[in-house]
Design brief:
alpha+beta, two-stranded antiparallel sheet
């Protein structure tokens, strides 16, 4: 790919207008595993139950 500015790729600098090699493995999606909605678990129920069980809420009372 040719850029209109200086590019650093794999530790090497390329001037504007020079051909910069592209890595096809970064663009490939073959190595990404498939994830379905069934694999995802939500943990919001535990957070809600902890907040309800704490009892006291708000600013603590002043002590002199």
């Amino acid at each position: 790919m040719i850029y209109d500015h200086i590019v650093k790729f794999n530790g090497k600098y390329y001037n504007a207008g020079e051909e910069v090699p592209e890595k096809e493995e970064l663009l490939s999606t073959e190595n990404i595993p498939d994830v379905s909605d069934e694999d995802i678990t939500l943990e919001t129920d535990a957070v809600v139950s902890e907040a309800k069980s704490s009892g006291k809420r708000g600013r603590p009372k002043k002590t002199e």
